[in-house]
């Protein structure tokens, strides 16, 4: 795979993840107790033998840069291989921010030229899945395709959330020619959703992006580039039938994490052999987890550095989380070094780094009323607590609430906040 260059689209932030992506791109979002979302595509690349990787990022990239480093944790270090962070840069006419996925690749055509690739693999850095890219590459070359796109089967009713295509039956379960493509249509019968995994012939990629740039339209692959290529280029769809976790919304992010749990989890992490940066967040320097004699733990994941004396059910605890005696954590995701003090009850909550919940706090109580400011984001009963927030003793917090990052206990004006409240 020396002649394959991978470009990972890893720089975006989505408003749908609210306070969880205020200080990080979605690809750097913690996942599954010790990973970052980007670990999945980087591990896929490593297992597939793709050794030359460019990572395109621009939104608050510090955590992503700190996590990826030089790519050594995914074995991208050595002769003719490496991981390169490709950030927006200043040009002679000023600074150019990436204005969409296609524009980000267009602004790095010089980097692509210098690698002399035979094939360019472009993929999203914010999906959770296990895939060997070699069969798709073989299919792309066998068909002599200008572009091959990876698709997963969905219910046609979900089409408005994805780029969707009609694929003929030329090669049955493997794939076929892409007959039509629509980006997030209001209504469509197409049942193949794009995983944002593209294999391009380099000369086709150069030509298409340059032409689109001259016309002022290079912004997005799905919305702008792919529809313009239909009927002009040889485009194939490759069918993927494995697990695919989409993390664009809070409900999807929560559910994909929950898919790690159970006797037969949908995400078998040990089988997937996902790698991560063990130096980031001091993962390998933390002591073993400590479980108290009266602790009760059911259907949950927890990692080194955790201290559990209370009750944890159907939850994921990142390293350093502490659950004191008499506390109860249910259906929740607690990021690194969050502390749950005595007598606390937390239900369906996502808490970012370094959150402290003082004695007797109740989170996730009352009726499930949608968040008043962001009803489309929070309506299923989840509550978000931003990084570094401190919840004062005795506080009652309803469902579908948002607590802004870094709030101190003294910033809370009352001891009860009803469901659907945003506290800033």
Per CATH, what is the topology of the largest domain? Spore Coat Polysaccharide Biosynthesis Protein SpsA, Chain A
Q: What is the spatial order of strands in the main beta sheet?
A: 17-20-23-26-29-32-34
By DSSP (H or I, 4+ residues per run), the number of helices equals 9
Distance between the termini: 50 Å
The gyration radius over C-alpha positions equals 23 Å
Shape: globular
* CATH architecture annotation of the largest domain: Alpha-Beta Complex
Helix content: 10-25%
Share in β-strands: 25-35%
Biggest sheet record: 7 strands, parallel
Number of strands: 35
The CATH class of the largest domain turns out to be Alpha Beta
What name goes with the CATH superfamily of the largest domain? Spore Coat Polysaccharide Biosynthesis Protein SpsA, Chain A
- The helix/strand class is alpha/beta
The low-confidence runs, each spanning 5 or more residues with pLDDT under 50, are none
- List the domain count as a whole number: 2
Characteristics:
about 425 residues, alpha/beta, Spore Coat Polysaccharide Biosynthesis Protein SpsA, Chain A, UDP N-Acetylglucosamine Acyltransferase, domain 1, 2 domains, 7-stranded parallel beta sheet
């Amino acid at each position: 795979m020396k002649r394959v260059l991978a470009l990972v689209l890893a720089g975006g932030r989505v408003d749908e993840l609210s306070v969880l992506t205020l200080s990080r791109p979605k690809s750097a979002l913690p996942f599954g107790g010790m990973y970052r979302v980007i670990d999945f595509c980087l591990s896929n690349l490593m297992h597939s033998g793709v050794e030359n990787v460019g990572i395109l990022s621009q939104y608050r990239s510090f955590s992503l840069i700190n996590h990826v480093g030089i790519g050594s944790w995914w074995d991208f270090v050595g002769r003719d291989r490496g991981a390169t962070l490709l950030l927006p840069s200043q040009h002679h006419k000023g600074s150019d921010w990436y204005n969409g996925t296609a524009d980000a690749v267009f602004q790095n055509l010089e980097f692509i030229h210098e690698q002399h690739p035979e094939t360019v693999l472009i993929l999203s850095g914010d999906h959770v899945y296990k895939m060997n890219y070699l069969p798709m590459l073989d299919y792309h070359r066998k068909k002599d395709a200008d572009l091959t796109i990876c698709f997963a089967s969905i219910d046609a009713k979900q089409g408005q959330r994805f780029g969707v295509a009609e694929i003929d039956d030329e090669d049955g379960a493997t794939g076929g020619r892409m007959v039509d493509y629509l980006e997030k249509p209001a209504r469509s019968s197409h049942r193949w959703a794009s995983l944002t995994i593209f294999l391009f012939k380099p000369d086709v990629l150069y030509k298409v992006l340059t032409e689109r740039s001259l016309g002022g339209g290079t912004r997005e692959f799905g919305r702008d580039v792919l529809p313009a290529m239909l009927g002009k280029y040889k485009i194939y769809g490759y069918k993927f039938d494995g697990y695919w976790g989409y993390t664009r919304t809070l409900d999807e992010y929560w559910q994909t994490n929950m898919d790690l749990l159970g006797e037969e989890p949908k995400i078998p992490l040990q089988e997937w052999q996902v790698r991560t940066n063990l130096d980031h967040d001091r993962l390998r320097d933390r002591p073993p987890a400590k479980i108290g004699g009266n602790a009760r733990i059911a259907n949950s994941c927890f990692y080194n550095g955790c201290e559990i004396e209370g009750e944890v059910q159907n939850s994921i605890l990142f390293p350093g989380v502490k659950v004191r005696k008499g506390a109860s954590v249910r259906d929740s995701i607690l990021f690194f070094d969050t502390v749950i003090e005595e007598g606390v009850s937390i239900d369906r909550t996502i808490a970012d780094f370094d959150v402290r919940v003082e004695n007797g706090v109740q989170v996730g109580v009352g009726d499930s009323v949608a968040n008043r400011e962001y009803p489309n984001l929070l309506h299923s009963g989840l509550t978000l607590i931003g990084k570094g927030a401190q919840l004062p003793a005795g506080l009652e917090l309803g469902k579908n609430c948002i607590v802004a990052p870094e709030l101190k206990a003294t910033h809370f004006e009352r001891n009860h906040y009803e469901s659907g409240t945003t506290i800033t």
